[in-house]
Amino acid sequence: MNSNHxxxxxxxxMASILEPSKASFFPAMTKIVGTLGPKSRSVExxxxxxxxxxSVARFDFSWGDIEFHQETLENLxxxxxxxxxxxxxxxxxxxxxxxxxxxxxxPISLEADTKVILTPDQDKPATSNLLPINYHGLxxxxxxxxxxxxxxxxxxxxxxxSVWLEVDEVCSEDVVCLIKNSATLSGTLYTLHVxxxxxxxxxxxxxxxxxxxxxxxxxxxxxxxxxYTRHAEDIRHARSFLSKLGELNQTQIxxxxxxxxxxxxxxxxxxxxxGIIFSRGNLGIDLPPEKVFLFQKAALxxxxxxGKPAVVTRVVDSMTDNLRPTRxxxxxxxxxxxxxxxxxxxxxxxxxxxxxxxxVSTVGKICAEAExxxxxxxxxxxxxxxxxxxxxxxxxxxxxxxxxxIKVKASAIICFTSSGRAARLIAKYxxxxxxxxxxxxxxxxxxxxxxxxxxxxARQSLIVRGLFPMLADPRHPAESKSGSNESVxxxxxxxxxxxxxxxxxxxxxxxxxxxxxxxxKILELED
Length: 527
Description:
The chain has 527 residues and is of the alpha/beta class. Helix content is 35%, strand content 24%. The strands form five sheets. It has an eight-stranded parallel barrel with strand order 1-2-3-13-14-15-16-17, surrounded by seven helices. A seven-stranded mixed beta sheet has the order 4-12-8-9-10-6-7. Helix 15 links the parallel strand 18 and strand 19. The longest helix has 18 residues, at 66-83.
């Protein structure tokens, strides 16, 4: 496990900490996933979030109907056009999530040391003594002494809106619980989590399949977040389902690790998934609090070594209602970056929070500061050692490009790619400068019509740390036979100059294929 990914030059000038951070076109190398919802679905708010650094928009289907999310997505498309900022679409499945059904939507007050019954009879109204739930098998899954947690949407841990229950007895299909703390459940959606208990429901539910095959197909989703992934077979099953849905065979699947079962099978899941999301809210209930950080560090390290994007959740919960994060939260964001996270996922903070734009901006600033002291030299050596010898052709080229860029103090790495694999491999070595991934579309056919690939590959890299894609003109091949590809290179350099990353007299490392050979070259720019 990584031990010292913090680089602080001695002696450090404490006064330098107070110097204002410099504004940049790329707010941070670490990406930000924002969940769009009631407080963040207008064109204006989404546009501001994109400008603040959000590069992936998450649509959470554990609540809201297809029409609601479609309206939000149409606003996102308008915002993308007006800001000229690329944004990937992530569909987050509901999965086998247990929910309290409160049809009246009236607040429910629960008093400590009293009892409440959890019943699968959803026709009954929710009261202080009776909570209907959406699962008939709870009474068979739990036993006396088990812990059940109920919280609003993503668990805040706030004692006034979340409640801990202890199973007292099981009566037929009902579960009688002792309330451990007083709380008021207000709002439409409260999720229920049973600590370390397997829920016998499919990971990809019929409702999830319906949403994916309708809303997902219509909008060509880039990433599927598979909630409550527990086994590698869950990923294989989801991939098989997507493969039958036309363009969605290109959709990446990120495993969302939320419980002990997913943690236990983590290595097999990582082999199958395209990326990992650490749902620390649920994990924090299944795991003892003192063990959460250990799993985060160990799991992030494994993702880094395999070059698969790792996303951390639940970092600035308090910004749901406050303009500033707590000291612990600010430190938590920085530690996630130093641990190797590719992206930070904001849930309730942007979905129903009062300050969605400020939250994206604040998290981006913290990430940028943490990146300045990330020990890239140590990380690079560990990554190369982990790959071992002999290296694959692509791995060798990627590591050489990063090594060259650092040695010559290049301002950027430009990588020409069709599949996006070469650019992701370069990003795996965590270069200190941005990697501009020039995705060259390829012409393909399904025997009925011709289409260009590339859009999926470009958007999917928006969740990879340090990778900034641009979609090139399809008339420029990714592989050049002539030994030069000056026109598309000029477009990439102009993009870098316009964004302020590349300046006159800077050095730039270019990685591209020339015929059958892969080439890394260093350019020194003129005025």
